């Protein structure tokens, strides 16, 4: 599970088999080190040899400790890659998601949150474990807690720049990917993809029978196969237990900008026609907010 082996970057991404699973005393004895916190004790990339108290397996130490909230941003000069703030953000989205997964696994009932700046672009992202919520298209928002930080995020449609993912798999129970522009192969087998603009190579596929496994609150330039709730799509929606959808959406005729042109007209027969059986409150709770794509 390396960062970029094709280009010679063999730093590890967080893994339960490697992260914090080494033996500090063994390293001290074999290398002749007294204090692992000494600044001269470094890994192969000249980073700290021990982060979070216990040495990692292998030549490279992962720079970020386990934390309930992580920040991801590209091109931050001087960042220590701890993910503790926007100024010390992690640059690798997949690494941050993996670290959040390990945090959630190590802290039963807790969620690992990942806030992703709108300058981040990533390929082939996978959320394979439970308890991770990644929120994209952020712009250095801060706050006292997750709700306050997320509450400051602008409308996904209004943003001139969005976090992008090319190729996404969501397969962790209770996990959420929210606020991204997603393209390529897009698949959800457990968890939720929400409040996003999705441009799949083929159709978005949603499999698995979980009550909260779905595509939610999103616009799709194409088709959806599987459970969808409150989704507008230019193609068909082969629904499986969802609802409140607008398939084969047509342009409204009075707005031509970006995705606003698919917003319902004021006199549309679909306004206020939501299905009463849809458990929208539980879906909003899962997503972590009650806003639509426009920020309303």
Explain what this protein looks like in three dimensions.
- The chain is an alpha/beta fold and 296 residues long.
- The protein is built from four helices and 16 strands.
- The protein has helices at 24-31, 93-106, 146-151, 280-287, and strands at residues 2-4, 9-12, 69-72, 112-117, 121-127, 132-138, 164-178, 181-194, 197-200, 204-206, 214-216, 219-220, 224-225, 228-229, 232-233, 237-238.
- Strands 3, 4, 5, 6, 7, 8, 9, 10, 11, 12, 13, 14, 15 and 16 form a 14-stranded parallel beta sheet that branches. Strands 1-2 form a two-stranded antiparallel ribbon.
- The longest helix has 14 residues, at 93-106.
- It starts with a strand and ends in a 9-residue tail after the last helix.
- The model has no long low-confidence stretch (mean pLDDT 87).
The count of β-strands is: 16
| Range of helix content | 10-25%
Outline, from the CA principal axes? elongated
H and E string: EEHEHEEEHEEEEEEEEEEH
Number of helices: 4
Cα(first) to Cα(last) distance is: 40 Å
The low-confidence runs, each spanning 5 or more residues with pLDDT under 50, are none
Question: What kind of sheet is the major sheet?
Answer: 14 strands, parallel
* Strand content bin: 25-35%
How does the helix and strand content classify structurally?
A: alpha/beta
Rg, nearest Å: 21 Å
Give the overall average pLDDT: 87
